[in-house]
Write a structure and sequence with these properties.
This protein is mostly helical and about 120 residues long. It contains 6 helices and no strands.
Length: about 120
């Protein structure tokens, strides 16, 4: 059994692996860890590096972790870049020497001028 994930999503790979596992000679000598090892060996390189070191012996847990990592990676790739300056704002502020906002310190409404008493 030499199934590789290739361009398949983890869910597709799991389905095909489960379908083909029924025909494997290892299926008749069911060892959950062996099944996990065969599955891990077919994963793509990024998932294999992240999952292989965990030595997961439960197939359901292994597939859950693979799906989680795949979803996490997809969210990271689609995450908006909030900290990059917007091109319009950058052009708008080009001539200014200091683009940082000027913050005013909050005034204490309980302090009275030059009083030497501490304000609580």
């Amino acid at each position: 059994m030499q199934l590789k994930q290739g361009n398949m999503l983890v869910g597709e790979y799991v389905s095909m692996f489960e379908e083909l596992w029924k025909y494997s000679t290892l299926f008749y000598h069911l060892n959950e860890r062996m099944k996990c090892i065969k599955f891990e060996n077919g994963l793509g390189p990024e998932l294999w590096k992240a999952i292989g070191i965990l030595e997961i012996s439960d197939f359901c847990t292994l597939t859950y972790k693979c799906r989680f990592l795949e979803d996490f990676e997809n969210r990271q790739n689609n995450k908006p870049r909030y900290f990059e300056p917007h091109p319009i704002k950058r052009r708008h502020n080009e001539g200014k020497s200091n683009n940082r906002p000027h913050w005013k310190s909050p005034t204490n409404k309980f302090s009275s001028g030059n009083s030497s008493r501490p304000v609580k």
